[in-house]
Design a protein that fits this description.
two-stranded parallel sheet; 9 strands; 7-stranded parallel sheet
């Protein structure tokens, strides 16, 4: 049996589907109760209290571990999850980390994630670490304004990064959970090319088949909107990356192609599959 945390998100849902299609028994975990797919067991667990995960880990052979940024920020001890997984007999953990642990190794969340990576490496478990860059699905922040006003409002309209489709992250995670050859692997996951917010707007418009206007925000305007849903430190970190990506953040990684044997999905692919969110 394989345990999938973050089961209701953009990675957890397709990962669960991929594992079920591969014939695996799956237990999904999320903070809130949700309807699980047929044949999948679901448990509501707050990962800030790792003891609550023990019923899910009982009998599990592998764990996909996805932790939210605020879990690190509030001073929780996610490393306890690794110890409890090992004690429960779990043999493999695939950790969703972030490219930021190497591209910008300072800041509360990235320091905590790097420490968690180190705990996992030092454990007696098989492990793989996934380090994605920016997510294509972050464009869902614009969905309401596109639906209401046919406008994307964002800062740094002509500065881009190679955003990755969460579906690709899920496929890579499934491979790492199922295939022994990925034990000890550290993979950087990106999309196939750098794309700017203005370019993302064009892709959304193409998927909709109707015009969408791009409106450039100042950094201050963008931060004022972002702090409504995230800590100010994280908003500033995100804006630093979006406004002045460094060489590591601009690099298109070959790891998705190496693992899956195909090119990463483009932002246009993501927009086409998720166009309903913008209608």
């Amino acid at each position: 049996m394989i345990v999938v945390t973050g089961a209701t998100g953009n990675i957890g849902r397709p990962l669960t589907q991929a594992l079920v299609e591969a014939g695996e028994a799956v237990t999904t975990v999320s903070r809130h109760a949700v309807a699980a797919p047929v044949g999948v067991r679901h448990l509501s667990v707050d990962l800030a209290e790792p003891a609550g995960l023990e019923p899910a880990l009982a009998g599990a052979k592998a764990l996909f571990l996805l932790l939210s940024g605020d879990l690190h920020a509030i001073g929780a001890t996610p490393a306890d999850i690794i110890g409890r997984a090992e004690a429960a007999g779990v043999r493999r953990v695939v950790l969703l980390s972030t490219l930021g642990v190497t591209s910008r190794p300072f800041g509360t969340t990235r320091i905590a994630m790097r420490e968690l990576e180190d705990v996992l490496r030092a454990s007696g478990l098989d492990w793989a670490i996934l380090r994605p860059g920016g997510f294509a699905s972050n464009a869902l922040w614009w969905a309401e304004s596109v639906r209401a006003h046919q406008v994307v409002a964002a800062p740094f309209g002509d500065i881009g990064v190679p955003v990755v489709d969460p579906a690709d992250i899920a496929e890579v995670a499934a491979a790492c959970l199922l295939e022994d050859r990925h034990a000890g692997g550290v993979y950087e996951l990106t999309g196939p090319q750098v794309i700017t917010p203005r370019g993302q707007t064009e892709a959304i418009a193409a998927a909709l088949g109707s015009p969408v206007r791009f409106h450039e925000l100042t950094r201050e305007e963008a931060k004022a909107a972002m702090v409504q849903t995230m800590p100010a430190e994280l908003a500033d970190d995100t804006l630093d990356i979006l406004g002045a990506p460094n060489a590591a953040e601009l690099r298109v990684s070959p790891d998705v192609r190496r693992i899956l044997g195909r090119e990463p999905r483009s932002f246009a692919d993501w927009a086409a599959r998720n166009v309903a969110a913008f209608r």
